[in-house]
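Reply to dn_fold:

You asked what the input looked like. This is it:
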Amino acid sequence: MGDGMSGNDAPRPWLSLYGRGVPAEIAVEYTSALEMFAFTAAAHPDADALRYFDGRLTWRELDRRSGAFAAALADAGFAPGERAALYLQNVPQFVIALLGVWKAGGIAVPVNPMYKARELETLLDDCGATVLVCLQDLYQQVAREAVAGTGVRTVVTTSALDHCATGDQRVLAGLERTPCPDTLDLAGLLERYDSHAPPAVRPGPDDVAVLSYTSGTTGPPKGAMNTHRNLVFNAQTYRDWVGLGPRDVILGVAPLFHITGLVGHVALALLTGAPLVLTYRFDPALAIDTVARERATFTVGSITVFIALMNAPNTSRRALASLTRIYSGGAPIPPSTVEAFRETFGQYVHNIYSLTETTSPSHAVPLNAVAPVDEATGALSVGVPVFNTDVRVVGDDGEELPPGEIGELVTSGPQVVPGYWGRPEESAAALPGGALRTGDVGYRDEAGWFYLVDRKKDQINASGYKVWPREVEDVLYEHPAVREAAVVGVPDAYRGETVKAYVSLRPGAEAAPDELVEFCRERLAAFKTPREVEVLDEIPKTATGKLLRRELRDRA
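and this is what came back:
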């Protein structure tokens, strides 16, 4: 449907912002992410699929190794529909295991490698995993204790030192190959089953490909059921929105366990044939060196990644010259940060808005556009709805609000998941009629640009006045000494709640809390001005770079 109308005949004014030749709708090209990969492996067998420090893995090798892993899983009793948890950093084994699980007919469950034993056990129980693939050090430190009381039958361990001859000590220092008794060694399995054919399975578009667990910033993590159709559609969205192909190089700065890394790095590479560059975990100085060495052209990550790049000791405009297509999502972006990045590197950071439940992007800034800043609020637009996607802003009564009115964003499209694993009541509440109630609050303007205010639960009520943390944070980011800022509501005997800010400072910079309070007072209404500012060395964040306001509220 390229007529500017959605399936419910509602106008989509944002289509005029797409750019010349960009369609309103795209068709899903593959029945599954596995079929998508098979096409790419056949088309580019000898090209690099994965680069890991000085190691290279071609599409042919990736196909063969993932097939061997699938055969090993089947031989161990893993059946179609079962879940296999991937407790890994950004290493080639993540992609090998992901594809192997799909080839065995299973559902992959990426796990945050920062999880401790209790968190890992909770997740394994929730998804009912029967297989766990994990790094040797994570097994020794965490997983060995966590799996004891779960339904996991098979544990496969691997080393982050595999697939490269020499790694970088900035991220791999202290790691050693450590045998893990009572587990299967992945390298040994791949060698043993190298000539074995994987099971003859063929996932369908509505089959669940991965269970992506929500970050838990607003409650207990839930497993969003991302289907193969969800993954293929949004891989195509990235490709067509950004204009990527096999000659591009994708820099993997987002954790692969997170929906951004899973789709914007892995699935995108599987679709386009562009090599994916992995570096175990993000380190800003290493990332800058890696872009220069590999001539990376595209990446997507949290804004904290790009703040870190600006503050890295080896920051160089020339080093990032090839990285001409940059997107950032996961957390609101202060306009001042976008401008500072462009001044430092000459590259524009395009906003993207995504949720686990929308399988990464639902909104994005068109590639050749600059996101507008709302004059009234100072908010930077998160972009416009992507292909095939309808987004409404609704009030508490569920009725759609006119442009400029603040309400909850409700999203419909091929990227929206069918529900949460094993949680029918929560699925029905969050996805009435298949449309996702995002829990994010924002508005759109007449042209179709969308702006986020905050999540509903983050709103501060100070003496009856509503304060959105984002607005206060954006002001703090304008101070030259502030590196990161997070604002929360804290109990107050007189006002009910009051505003408190936490900040970290740029290297070598100084700013007293009183100075920062005064800086805000000059730019904000009195009820929005923080009553207290606390300076921290680091603001707590999730593994994906999202600021943990909940933890800060607990701290306060």
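Confidence is low (pLDDT under 50) at residues 1-9.
Hope that clears it up.
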